[in-house]
Amino acid sequence: MDSKISSVEILELGEKGREISSPWSSTILLVRLTTSDGTVGYGEAPPTTLMTLPVKESLREVERVFSGKNVFNVERNVKEFYKHSFYLSKSMEATSALSAFEIASWDIIGKKLGAPIYDLMGGQINDRIRAYANAGTRTASPPLRTSSTRQSRS
């Protein structure tokens, strides 16, 4: 199958502070890949080293390599990035950015093949997993403060 990555959008979610690079705990970085036929995939790049900006810049570097490439060639695209990345082996930021593009690629592949990502990567391991959500900060909106609050409003 041939499906090229036609656009990349880097989304920064969270409350922006006064810092040029917001602290990791208040930010989520997502990558939205769109293919030439309009299929969309998402991946998350966890901010590392307590700051968002270095990961965001690394996402732009990975974008340069992945743009226009066939989304089904995940390993080839990753190796192409390795070839051009001087700091990858030493950089948590580059690793975080690369993982977001990989997961977004697998998301698209799963959608196109009608299969969950875990089937594409070796099969299901757990029947259930525990989820963790931390919205208990003072700046969180009232419905997000606690799970009991969310449940009582539903």
Write a structural description:
The protein is an alpha+beta fold and 154 residues long. The chain has a single domain, classed as Enolase-like, domain 1, CATH 3.30.390.10. Helix content is 38%, strand content 16%. The chain has helices spanning 53-66, 74-84, 92-113, 117-120, 147-153; strands spanning 5-14, 27-35, 40-44. A three-stranded antiparallel sheet has the order 1-2-3. Helix 1 crosses helix 3 (92-113). The longest helix is centred in the middle third of the chain and has 22 residues, at 92-113. It is globular, with a radius of gyration of 17 Å. The relative contact order is 0.15. The model is unreliable at 149-154 (pLDDT under 50).
List the keywords.
154 residues; alpha+beta; Enolase-like, domain 1; three-stranded antiparallel sheet; 5 helices; 3 strands; 38% helix; 16% strand; disordered C terminus
Topology, please?
Layout: E1 5-14, E2 27-35, E3 40-44, H1 53-66, H2 74-84, H3 92-113, H4 117-120, H5 147-153
Antiparallel strand pairs: 1-2, 2-3
Helix pairs in contact: 1-3
What is the general shape?
A: globular
Share of residues in strands: 15-25%
CATH topology: Enolase-like, domain 1
Largest sheet: 3 strands, antiparallel
Determine the mean pLDDT. 81
Q: Order of strands across the biggest sheet?
A: 1-2-3
CATH superfamily: Enolase-like, N-terminal domain
Counted beta strands: 3
Number of domains: 1
Question: How much helical structure, as a percent, in the residues?
Answer: 25-40%
Topology order in helix (H) and strand (E) letters: EEEHHHHH
Output the radius of gyration: 17 Å
